[in-house]
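Hi C.,

You asked whether I'd gotten around to modeling the 401-residue construct. I have! Everything is below, sequence then structure, no commentary in between.
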Amino acid sequence: MSNAWRHLGLALLTAGLINSAQAQGLRPEVGKPLQQAGELLKAGKAKEALAKVREAEAVGGKSANEQLTIDRMKAAAAQRAGDLGTAIQALEGIHGRISGAEQGQVAEQIAAAYAQQRNNAKASEWVAKAVAAGNNGAGVRQLQSYLQGATGDYGAIARDAGAAVSAAEQAGRRPEEGDLLRLADAQQRLGNMAGYGAALEKLLLNYPKKDYWAAHLARLPRKSGFSPRYELDVMRLRLASGTLSKTEEYMEMAMLALQAGFPAEGRRIAEQGFQNGVLGTGPEAARHQRLRDLAVKQETEAKANIAKRASEAVASGDGDAIVAAGYAYVTLGQAEEGVKLIEQAIAKTKPKHPEEARLRLGMAQMQLPKGKAAATSTLRSVRGNDGAADIARLWLLVGHN
C-alpha cells in the first residue's frame, strides 16, 4: 500500500500547502509557522515541518478556519514524516468539518493510512464512507480490492470488479484496465477458469498487450475439452499476436504446418524465422535450413497437385478432406478457390467436425480482399467446447486490433 498512500499524501500536500494569499486569512501567530511548515515540506524536511505545525496548534483561541488549516498541514507533514497515527488523527478531524466531494477524497486517504497500518477493519470502514460520499474512483476501487484480497474475499472482488466492467460496457465506455485485471485475477483464484478466460478476452479486446495474449494463449490448450487438433491454430495466433519468439517454437510450428498438409504455410513460417534471426544461426543452423528446403520442395509439389487433391476429396465425399483441401488452397494464396471448396463441404457434406469447418471458412474469408464482414459473421457463428469457438473469437480480436 505504500505507493497508493504516497500518491494520496502528495495530493493532500498539494491541497494543503499554505501560500501567502491563504495566510492572509489567518492570524500571524498561526499563519507564520504554517507558512514556514509549507516551506520546510517543499524542502523535504517533514519532521521540522510537523514541529512548526505544532507551534501553530499551540496557539489559543483558534477559529474553525484556523483549526481546519492546521489539520490540513499537519496531515501532510505527518504523512511525509511517516507518522501515520498523527496523519490519521488530523485527517479524521478534517473529515468531520467538510462536505461534498472533498469528504469522499479525505475518507479515501484515511482508509489508505489505516491499510498501511494493517488495520484492515478500520480501512474497510473508511472505504465504505468514501463510497457513501460519492467517491468511487479508481483509487478507492483498488484499495477495496486490496482489502478484500487481504481477507481472501475474492468472490467480492470478482463481484465488484465485474460490476464496474459491466457498468462501463453498458455506458459505451472502455472498462478500466485495473478492473479487468482484478476480475481476471479473482476468477483465477476462485477456480472459475471460464470467467478467467472471459476476462482475459476482454483485456485483449480493450488492451491488446503481448502479455495478455501470452497469458491467454498459454492457458488455452489446457482448457477442459480442448482438442489437440487446434495446436497449430494456437501457434498461428501466437504468430499473429507477436508472442511466438523462440527458435524451437518456429521450428515446431513449421513442422506442424507440414504435417497438416500446408507446406506453403510451413515455408512462410520458416522464412519469417530466418528474417527475425531466430532461425539460421547457432549450432542448429543447418537443421533449420533443411526444414526450409523441405518446405519449399513440398510447396512446389502441393501447387502442382492441389487441383487433383481437391477433386479426389470431392469425389470421396469426405467433408473434412474437402475442408482441408480448401484451406490448402488458401495457404497457397488462392483464397477464393479455398472459400468455394469449404462452402461446398459445409453445404453438401457432413464434416465430422462441422465447427472446425466453419472456423476454417472464417479464416479463409479473412484472406479475401473484401471478406472481413463475411469472416466476422462466420467466426461469430462457431460453437462448441473443443476449442474451435475459442480460436474463432480470438481471430475476431486479432482482426479488431
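If it helps when you're writing up: The chain has two domains: 2-151, 220-400.

Thanks,
B.
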